[in-house]
């Protein structure tokens, strides 16, 4: 395995750090580059249903609003916001 095979490029466009130079921050953000973590979160019914219910029970906060889902991952929260009545959703 190449030394920096699982590292992702930094926001500045520099080459990814070597695995031996990665910080906890690098490991944290690199973990989201793998689809498995997103599948695991979507299958976490308690988590997903809680997010959905929180948004759907507060539709008045989303109705006709513009929503930006930063770090949207799978986009599930963006879909909940749209279904709750958001005028536009950026994900």
Automatic annotation (TrEMBL):
<keyword id="KW-0808">Transferase</keyword>
<protein>
    <recommendedName>
        <fullName>Methyltransferase domain-containing protein</fullName>
    </recommendedName>
</protein>
<keyword id="KW-0949">S-adenosyl-L-methionine</keyword>
<dbReference type="Pfam" id="PF06325">
    <property type="entry name" value="PrmA"/>
</dbReference>
<dbReference type="InterPro" id="IPR029063">
    <property type="entry name" value="SAM-dependent_MTases_sf"/>
</dbReference>
<dbReference type="GO" id="GO:0042054">
    <property type="term" value="F:histone methyltransferase activity"/>
</dbReference>
<keyword id="KW-0489">Methyltransferase</keyword>
<dbReference type="InterPro" id="IPR025799">
    <property type="entry name" value="Arg_MeTrfase"/>
</dbReference>
<dbReference type="GO" id="GO:0035242">
    <property type="term" value="F:protein-arginine omega-N asymmetric methyltransferase activity"/>
</dbReference>
<dbReference type="GO" id="GO:0032259">
    <property type="term" value="P:methylation"/>
</dbReference>
<dbReference type="GO" id="GO:0035241">
    <property type="term" value="F:protein-arginine omega-N monomethyltransferase activity"/>
</dbReference>
<dbReference type="GO" id="GO:0005634">
    <property type="term" value="C:nucleus"/>
</dbReference>
């Amino acid at each position: 395995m190449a030394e920096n095979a699982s590292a992702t490029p930094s926001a500045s466009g520099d080459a990814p750090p070597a695995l031996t130079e990665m910080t906890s921050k690098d490991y944290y953000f690199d973990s989201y580059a793998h689809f498995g973590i997103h599948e695991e979160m979507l299958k976490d019914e308690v988590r997903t249903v809680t997010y959905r219910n929180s948004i759907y029970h507060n539709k008045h906060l989303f109705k006709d609003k513009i929503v930006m889902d930063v770090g949207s991952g799978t986009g599930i929260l963006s879909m909940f916001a749209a279904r709750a009545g958001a005028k536009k959703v950026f994900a």
